[in-house]
């Protein structure tokens, strides 16, 4: 009986880790279907991001699909900045993203809104920031 009680937490952990893996797998599969409509896309546990021509769309990945999506046209964007953990402005600018994200892209729109796109990997965030800044500067003539 003692051995059974000792193994019970391990069994519970095994079932939990199996469920968590299945849950994440389902999120990735729904992301793949969603990403087909974009020229360039990225999946992150915090956000899915897609770029198609002059539009940028992002939202929260779930098993049922990408929810809380937002779409903007590059004509609405004044500037794009990368704010990474460790920067002086990260804690105050991150709002509710500070606990989970390592970096985020902050878009300055023409209507003075500042939407944020979270990233768990700073290197990927830097690449997206460079790409989007270049696309914004070129006026979308040469999207790659």
Kindly provide the radius of gyration, computed on alpha-carbon positions and rounded to a whole number of angstroms. Answer: 19 Å
**Low-pLDDT sequence parts:** 140-144
Can you tell me the CATH class? Mainly Beta
> Which architecture name does CATH use?
Roll
CATH topology (level 3) name:
PH-domain like
What's the rounded overall pLDDT mean? Answer: 84
- Structural class by sheet pairing and helices: alpha+beta
Order of helices and strands: HEEEEEHEEH
Strand order of the largest sheet: 1-2-3-4
Q: Proportion of β residues?
A: 25-35%
Principal-axes geometry comes out as elongated
| Number of alpha- plus pi-helical segments | 3
Helix content: 25-40%
CATH superfamily: Pleckstrin-homology domain (PH domain)/Phosphotyrosine-binding domain (PTB)
Gap between N and C termini: 63 Å
For the report, how would you describe the main beta sheet? 4 strands, antiparallel
Tally of distinct domains: 1
Protein name: ATP synthase F0 subunit 8
Organism: Leptothoe kymatousa TAU-MAC 1615
Structure characterization notes:
The protein is of the alpha+beta class and 144 residues long. The protein has three helices and seven strands, in the order αβββββαββα. It has a single domain (2-138), classed as Pleckstrin-homology domain (PH domain)/Phosphotyrosine-binding domain (PTB) (PH-domain like), CATH 2.30.29. A four-stranded antiparallel beta sheet has the order 1-2-3-4. β2 (48-52) and β3 form a beta hairpin. The longest helix has 34 residues, at 2-35. The model is unreliable at 140-144 (pLDDT under 50). This is ATP synthase F0 subunit 8.
């Amino acid at each position: 009986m003692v051995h059974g009680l000792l193994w019970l937490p391990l069994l519970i952990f095994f079932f939990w880790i199996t469920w968590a893996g299945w849950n994440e797998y389902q999120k990735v599969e729904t992301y793949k279907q969603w990403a087909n409509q974009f020229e360039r896309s990225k999946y992150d546990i915090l956000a899915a991001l897609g770029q198609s021509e002059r539009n940028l769309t992002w939202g929260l990945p779930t098993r049922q699909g990408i929810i809380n999506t937002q779409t903007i046209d590059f004509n609405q964007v004044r500037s794009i900045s990368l704010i990474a953990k460790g920067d002086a402005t990260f804690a105050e600018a991150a709002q509710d993203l500070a606990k989970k994200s390592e970096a985020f892209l902050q878009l300055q729109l023409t209507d003075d809104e500042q939407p944020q796109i979270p990233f768990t990997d700073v290197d990927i965030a830097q690449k997206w920031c460079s790409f989007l800044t270049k696309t914004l500067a070129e006026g979308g003539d040469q999207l790659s």
